[in-house]
Amino acid sequence: RIEVVPGDGRLSLERRAGPPFDVLLVDAFSGDSIPVHLLTREAFDLYFRRLAPTGIVALHISNKYVDLEPVVSAAALAMGKHAVVVSTDDEDYPLFDSTWVLLSSRADRFETPEFKEAEPLSAAPVTWTDDYSNLLSVLKR
């Protein structure tokens, strides 16, 4: 069953009651305005509280202006989570290229044939929190 909830993702997830998710998809970063509050340690804590033990958080991090992979990497490392990067690279249709980071509490979630092309995350800088973030540090040059 797919459940779509309109509104601010973090606030809606805070208010949500019900069974845990098998997959939590976060797709809010491709525009010019980055919702930083969805990339903080506190946000990731919330995602994993609402996730089933074998679940996956999937973040679509494609963006022309900022590289969010190190931010997600820092959060994953700080929380002891396992993560991989999955990217598409379509030479015929570059507009459809996308980059996703998948996180799980269980490493074995990424040890299946479907993830053989997945890559480990890049090195991580400082973890963003509700009290600290630095968009300038992730601007693409």
Keywords:
20% strand; four-stranded mixed sheet; alpha+beta; 141 residues; 3 helices; Rossmann fold
Which geometry do the CA atoms define?
Answer: globular
CATH architecture: 3-Layer(aba) Sandwich
| CATH fold type | Rossmann fold
Radius of gyration from the alpha-carbon trace, in angstroms: 15 Å
Find the structural class using helix and strand composition: alpha+beta
- Count the beta strands: 4
Superfamily at the CATH H level?
Vaccinia Virus protein VP39
* The CATH class: Alpha Beta
**What's the average pLDDT?**
88
**Count of spatially separate domains:** 1
Strand portion: 15-25%
**Mind describing the biggest β-sheet?**
4 strands, mixed
